[in-house]
Amino acid sequence: MVVLSNPPMEQFFMKPSKPSxxxxxxxDIPLIDLSKPESKHHLVKACQDFGFFKVVNHGVPVKxxxxxxxxxxxxxxxxxxxxQKSGPPDPFGYGNKxxxxxxxxxWVEYLLLNTKPESVYPDNLQGIVNDYVTVxxxxxxxxxxxxxxxxxxxxxxxxxxxxxxxxxxxVFRLNHYPPFxxxxxxxxxxxxxxxxxxxxxxxxxxxLRSNNTSGLEIxxxxxxxxxxxxxxxxxxxxxxxxxxxxxxxxxxxxxHRVVANGTKSRMSMIYFGGPPLSxxxxxxxxxxxxxxxxxxxxxxxxxxxxxxxKTRLSDNRLGLFEKSNNIxxx
Length: 330
Fold this sequence. Notes:
This protein is of the alpha+beta class. Helix content is 22%, strand content 22%. The chain has 7 helices and 14 strands. Helix 1 crosses helix 4 and helix 2 (62-76) crosses helix 4. The longest helix has 25 residues, at 126-150. This is gibberellin 2beta-dioxygenase. Residues 167-275 form the Fe2OG dioxygenase domain. Pathway: Plant hormone biosynthesis; gibberellin biosynthesis; Hormone biosynthesis.
């Protein structure tokens, strides 16, 4: 049985959402089949319209997924005293319920890991995580190069080289959302149980895979939250803040959250592809049209990361780096 520490329970509930003015029209999550030649076009459109998409025929061997999930389950099923030997997170390590250092909480326990070769992981996870991250990073780079091809950017590794750099500041996260049998939505005035609060990812791209328990939701441009149907055989991609800046707002960093399930355990694994700390983040000159103004001030990944660590999850982290005389693209 998973035992988590106990902040006041009231903190774990979302306020009821306002009823949608058009609840029957729910757009489909963009589905990208990497085996199809037209996938490049669909990738760009998904990044522009949603900042989020699902990938099938991705080529990642199932064995890497099942091995990692099996070991992750073993880790999270361990006694709390065993798991706490890998914590507290600073920022890497094991944590539960408290997310970051600024007061955010969720019905979740997690393991945040550095992907650099010299990093130390809990027993039995080292080689398995390294194998998984390697194949997922390669898939991410393929996606990034297809995007560059469709946008006619040169060199075609303009995005992917930052993930392949030896100094890439990428991280890997295992999230476990345990069941909460005591929770009944009917007895909480329709409020949902927060698993992981709403946020955008600050990196370039995020690649998520989960088991078949629902919970992930994304925010549409019209202000509606929609549930993402789970699919354990596919990968889900989030555009990150850094990619939004590099495309000068053409691609959208999607706000997302996880609603915890009262009866089923949810397990997710996320690779966050980040640039080197010294990398300058700014709109790509080769992408800018004539007389197009930059929407953002130039900053390094280190500066943005440092700023993001000081914020709450739901804060607009890019707000401090937007040029005040510009309005973001719609």
